[in-house]
Each structure stands twice: as structure tokens, then as C-alpha cells.
Amino acid sequence: MDDIKKRVELLIEKLNIPEKQKQVKEIEALSLKSGFWDDHKTASDKMRELARLQEIVDDAYKLEELLKSGKEEEIESLLTSMENLTFLSGPHDFANAILAIHSGQGGVEAMDWAEMLMRMYTRFFEKKNLKYEEVDRTPGEETGIKSITFNVYGGNAYGILRREAGTHRLVRQSPFNADKLRQTSFALVEVLPIIDDSLESTIPKEDIEFSAFRSGGHGGQNVNKVSTAVRIKHIPTGIVVTCQTERSQLQNRENAMKLLGARLWQVEEEKRRQGLKELKGEYKFAGWGNQIRSYVLHPYHMVKDLRTNAETSDTDKILNGEIDLFIDAELRLLP
Known about the structure:
This protein is α+β, with helices and mostly antiparallel strands. It contains ten helices and eleven strands. A hairpin with a 5-residue loop joins strand 9 and strand 10.
């Protein structure tokens, strides 16, 4: 407990809780002023910042109360989660996130693997009380999924998830082969920040090509008979995004613009990293080949992250969404 107490004291100092309490009071006072909501976007940003700061302050109080009661296991879990906040330093680490999964080489096996990853991440979201919504899905021909996209809200989603991006490799005995041969398959995980809900007003109309089509997904008669799904192409970069859920065309368009905004940010990040002054022609996300984690289910059980060397033989636990071992290790990596 002495070690935990020292960690709590250091954490409170690093997070500068008194300053965050001051910021909470300032934003609360600002929100009570007349005209606060005249600029809806700025007001919404302030309220999101208020919620984030208040959550940190509340957790700090909770941590101190748990310390007084001596509940070591509960303290350890909350303490580790809050310590991770000190590693979030990127400009969008506190933003909501877009997480997409794409099946790779391996045919039916890879589509099944993509669906297994979908299950792993949605269970992780639920364990962490992260809200999520499915905005696009392309099912596999026989089983599994070719691709799926989620919006993930709350809990510093982008900062926590961003290092999950990359190629995930699965090795197992194939359930789709009568001889149960050992099979290797791949899936790509993309993680992007949700940049700005008002993006559509900032992109020239002539740069966007919009079309609607009938969704091929599940969701009842309305989904298949009405053109609610949308496809948006950003002409200067060639980026194409689609969204098709059980909701209206307007909601699908809003989600598609969020995804487009994230991909345009990704383009700018790539240009910045490579020192490019301009980028012409079709843009392709360079994610394949960046293998980050290996999941082996045969001839032994092991999940290993190739960047942090974190590993475990409890593959069932990992595939059920308990990936904190890897998330915690990733957050300690340099950006």
C-alpha cells in the first residue's frame, strides 16, 4: 500500500488536479453567460472539455477515497487507468475515434478473423464504457466481414486506441478446411480521430462528389428498398468513403463526412511526415505490412505485441476484449 500511496501522490501532482478544478469552475461560469450557445461549435467543444476535466477530477477524488478504505484491487485498476492519461500528449488524444477493420490475405479465413477482431474490440469498448456505433459494414460472401467501421465516443478514445492501428496476424487450425490445416491470415485495423462535426461547411462543394445507394446490409425492408446509404468522393485526393446503417440518409451523410474528415487529416499527417508539399492523385492508406501483433492459437497459444514485447498465453481472455495489457504497454511508447 505504501507503493500505491506514492503512485497516487505522484499522479495527482502530474495531472495537476487543482488546476483542473479551476478550469472546471471557469467553464461552468462561462456556460452560464448569455450568448454562450450563439456559437454552437465553440460551446459544444467547451462542454466536451468540461466533461473530460470533470471526469479526471471525479476519478482523483474516487482514488483518494479508495486509498482511505484500503481497497487495493480497485485502487490498482483505477490508478493504472489514470496513469495512462499522463501519456496522452497528442493534439487529438482526447478526441473521439473512428475504428475500422479490414480483412486481408486469407480469403474466408481472413474475413472470419476480421469478425473475431470486431468482437474483441466491441467487448473492449463495453468493458471501458465507451459508446460506439456501427456506421459501415461489408459482409463476407460466406462468413465473417470484409470490413466494418465504428465511431467510438468518450474515454479519450483516440488516444487510447490509436496505437492499435496496423496489421494483426492470426495463426490457427482452419475451421474452414476439412484437414484442419494450419492457416495464417491478416486483418488491418485503422484508428482515426473524429476531427470536426462541421467539416462539410469547410470543404468546397466542387471538391465533393455525393451519391446515394441501397444498403446491402441488414436492418429490415427500409434498408434494402430505400437509398439511405451514401458514398462520398473527395475529388482532389480520390478518397472514397461509404456509410450504410439502419438510419436515415442524412445520418449516414454526417457519419461519412466524419470519416472523410479523418482521412483528410490522415493525408495531411502523411504529407507532414514525408515532407511533401502536395499530394495529387488517388490516396491509398499505407497500413499493410505494418504488423503490430501476432495471435497464435496453434500449435500453442500466445498473443504477442511486436513493438512492446508484451505477451500472454491467455488467448481467450484477449479475444474476449481484455486487451488492457497491450493498451497499457502501448501508451508507454513514445508517440
